[in-house]
C-alpha cells in the first residue's frame, strides 16, 4: 500500500513544491522514528520470553522496580517521542501560512469554492472575476495564495504534490499558500467526506509559466466571439441550461458550474469522465447514473438531437 503512494498525480511522496517537500520530509522522518519505536517494542516483547533466574525482592523493592518502568516507559518515552514530533512538525506548516512580510510582494490570490460536488475557481480582477470550474490554472515558480470556502457542506482542498490540505467551511474563508516549482499538471481531490459523490470531486490543477498564465487569464476576460455556426445550440442552451449555468456573454446562471471555457477542460463531472468527442452529449443523457445524486436535473426529456447539438457546441467552447 505504501509503495502505491510513491508516484502518480496525487502522491505526497513525489513533491513538486516547497510546502509538499516539507510534508514529504516529515513523513519520512516519522516513518523512520516510528520504525525505530516498533523495533524497540518487538525486542522488549521478545526479551520478556527469555528464561530468567528468580530474583527475591522485598515489597518495597518491587514497588520501586515497577515505578521505574511506569515512569520510564509510560511517561518519559512517550514524552520524548511527542516532543520530537512537535519539533519536526511545527515548522512544516509554516511555508503554507499566508504571511506577507513587510517589503514582500503579496502573492497572486485564487479563490476556490467547494460545492456538492464540484469546484468553483475565481480569479479576482479589477474588471470582475474570471470564473472557471473543476480546472484550476496557476502560475508556476511563485507562491499562490488560495482563499478557500464552501457553498454548502464542509469540503477540503488538497493538492498532494504541492502541499496542504485545508478545510473549506461554509461561512468562513481559510487561506493557504502553495507553490509549484515547475509548470505541470497536478491532481487534487476533495479530502473531506461531503456526501455520496465525495469521491467524484476531483480537481485538475495546471501550473503555467507566468506569461502563459497571463495569456490564459486575458483570454477569459475577453467576450466570447459571435458563433453563427452554433446559433441553434446557443438557443437550446438559453432555453434549457441558462437558468443554472453561466456562459460569458450569453447567460448568467449561478447555480451550476460556469461553462464559458468548458471546451478546455480535461474531464467532465469533476473527474467522472474524460472530455472527448461526444462526451458532453453522453454526460447530459446519463449523468444521473454516472454521478447519482448530483444537483443537475436529469435531461432525459430532451431529444437526442438537441443533446448532441448542445454537446458539439460546448465541447469546443473555449475562449
Ligand atoms: Cu467535497 Cu468531499
UniProtKB/TrEMBL annotation:
Which intervals hold domain Cytochrome c? Answer: 228-318
Cross-referenced CDD domains, in alphabetical order? CuRO_CcO_Caa3_II (cd04213)
What is the superkingdom listed in this entry's lineage? Answer: Bacteria
Residue ranges spanning the membrane: these are 25-48, 69-90
Q: One GO MF term, please?
A: heme binding
Q: Which reaction does it catalyse?
A: 4 Fe(II)-[cytochrome c] + O2 + 8 H(+)(in) = 4 Fe(III)-[cytochrome c] + 2 H2O + 4 H(+)(out)
Sorted keywords for this record are:
Copper, Electron transport, Heme, Iron, Membrane, Metal-binding, Respiratory chain, Transmembrane, Transmembrane helix, Transport
Q: Name one GO cellular component term.
A: membrane
What membrane topology is annotated for this entry?
Answer: Multi-pass membrane protein
Q: Which InterPro entries match?
A: CcO_II (IPR045187), CcO_II-like_C (IPR002429), Copper_CuA (IPR001505), Cupredoxin (IPR008972), CuRO_CcO_Caa3_II (IPR034236), Cyt_c-like_dom (IPR009056), Cyt_c-like_dom_sf (IPR036909), Cyt_c_oxidase_su2 (IPR014222)
Domain (Cytochrome oxidase subunit II copper A binding): residue spans on this chain: 105-219
> Where does the protein end up?
Membrane
Where does the protein principally reside?
A: membrane
Query: Which Pfam family is an annotated match for this chain, by its short name?
Result: COX2
Q: Name one GO biological process term.
A: ATP synthesis coupled electron transport
**What span is annotated as the signal peptide, if there is one?**
none
* Record PROSITE patterns: COX2 (PS00078), COX2_CUA (PS50857), CYTC (PS51007)
Cited function = Subunits I and II form the functional core of the enzyme complex. Electrons originating in cytochrome c are transferred via heme a and Cu(A) to the binuclear center formed by heme a3 and Cu(B).
Q: Which family does it belong to?
A: Belongs to the cytochrome c oxidase subunit 2 family.
Q: What is this protein called?
A: Cytochrome aa3 subunit 2
Q: What is the lineage of its organism?
A: Bacteria, Pseudomonadati, Pseudomonadota, Gammaproteobacteria, Oceanospirillales
